[in-house]
Amino acid sequence: MSDLLTALGFVLVIEGLVYALAPHLTKRMMSAAQEMSDDQLRLGGVVATIVGVGVVWLVQRLLVPS
Asked: Is the pLDDT score of 60 beyond 90?
């Protein structure tokens, strides 16, 4: 459970940094997202989820001692 909360904290840190350091980029990305179809956004979400699960699996498999 602590790993999940740590990961959530990291997500919030990264997202907060993007808003704080590049608000203009955030606005452009949000504008571009509004122009995309639901299917494109859904596919992007699925791909991001698969990549995220893969990264977590690799870290747990390769870097965390058993």
From this structure: no
